[in-house]
Amino acid sequence: MHFRKFVSITILVFTIWSRFQTFAQAQLLRDRTADPSSPFSTALETLQKQIGYTFESVGLLRRAMTHASYSEENNRALSILGASVIETAVSLNSIVKDVDISPKDLNRQISGISNVETSCAVDATRLGLHKVVRVSPKTNSTTPAVVCGAFRALFGAIAVDSRESDVAGRVFWNVHGGKFGGVLQL
After folding, report:
1. Which of 36, 76, 34, 64 is nearest to 124 (CA)?
2. Of 40, 50, 96, 142, which sits with the fewest C-beta atoms within 10 Å of its C-beta?
3. What does the pLDDT look like over 66-114, one tens digit per residue?
4. What is the DSSP string of 122-173?
5. Mapping DSSP to helix (H, G, I), strand (E, B) and coil, where does residue 168 land?
């Protein structure tokens, strides 16, 4: 009886694993076969140079720069992860600087950097994300919610690509600290 369960579980694991490998190979193929001369691909290459991070899976960056109005394969989940990465980076940086920081001051700092209308949208616009993020024709790519969503998704994509939220946090501080190149030119 135990042998049958073992065989059944083994077959199930191999089936799931082979489907996962097929999906991963298809994603890599899609990344490689994307038209490298398209304006969007060129903008993604420029963005990677600007932020100082090269994606292993450019598909993650493509998704991060795709608004929900454009496609069902969009940046919403990456944006949620990216917001958490940014908040963690701000919290860690603040507590390292002052271990006695009050919870109120810490929350104020997190809120200031996470604010859609101010810091988040300003950083995103300085990067030129409003020129990169794909949106439907009816959506304005310059609205704070759209560019901030793409900005956050960028750091979520870096965390997934590198498999380390610390890497995404370091890239965030480089971008937020103004250590990136000029505004993205398209």
Report:
1. 64
2. 96
3. 999 999 999 999 999 999 999 999 999 889 999 999 999 999 988 888 7
4. HHHHHHTHHHHSB--TTS-TTSHHHHHHHHHHHHHHHHHHHT-HHHHHHHHH
5. helix
Which residue reads 């965390």 in tokens?
Answer: 159
Instruction: Please count the other Cβ atoms lying within 10 Å of the Cβ belonging to residue 39.
Output: 11
Tokens of 11: 């077959």
Q: 120-178 pLDDT, tens per residue?
A: 889 999 999 999 999 999 999 999 999 999 999 999 999 999 999 999 999 999 998 84
Residue 28 has a CB neighbour count (10 Å cut-off) of: 14
Burial class (CB in 10 A: 0-12, 13-18, 19+), 161: buried
Q: What's the maximum distance between 2 C-alpha atoms anywhere in the chain?
A: 66
Half-sphere exposure of 68 (CA within 13 A, CB side): 8
Give the integer Cα–Cα distance in Å for 112 and 17.
Answer: 43
- Please name every residue paired with 66 in a beta bridge, in sequence order, or none if there are none: 134
Query: 0.70 exceeded by the pTM?
Result: yes
